[in-house]
Write a structure and sequence with these properties.
228 residues
Length: 228
Amino acid sequence: MKTTFRYALRRSLPILLGFVPLGLAYGVLMRSAGYNFLWSGACSFFVLAGSLQFLMVSFLTGAMPIATVAVMALLLNSRHIFYGLPFLEKFRAFGPWRYYLIFGLSDEVFSQHCDYRPTPGVDEKWSFIFSTLLVHVYWVVSTIAGGLLGALIRFDTTGIDFSLTALFIVILLDQMHGADVRLPAALAAASGVVCILVFGAANFILPSLVITSAGLMLLRPRLEREAA
């Protein structure tokens, strides 16, 4: 067990380094919105979805309809459905722990699971469990620290909510950098602009997501041919 834990810890440390600045930003953002470190920690513990949590700040402060929140959460995190497919049989063999492993299957945990290689002295099941648990702890602790830091900040934090926009810009640029087909990004941009003009800045997100998703489904055969 000790060897397995050290193995999981060593592999997860780079994730910790990435989580610290992002978690601090989220905690400070929550604090600036009027929610203390306990709220930051609770959201991280129960939601465990970084990009959705940043978006949730606007949900909490903007009185957004629950239906809109539910649809956006589903669309934003639908990729996790596909993450779980390769591990269905493996997780089933892990007994009750499979429920926690399913819950904790974030982007970072998924990459660690996929990169696992049999190693002498390392138990595969507990390697998966420890990896998931460590990443979960890293995120919760980082966001709590951000909430505590936010309570100490005395200067004007106006504009810190741009961290959400910056996060999605970085994700977009990273996706486009490695993508062979950029039509989905163009479609999303076009639908966003049109929906802002039609529905206004306060109500454009949900219709834009629906139009983009429908367009991608219709264009799927073409996209698959171009990506081949």
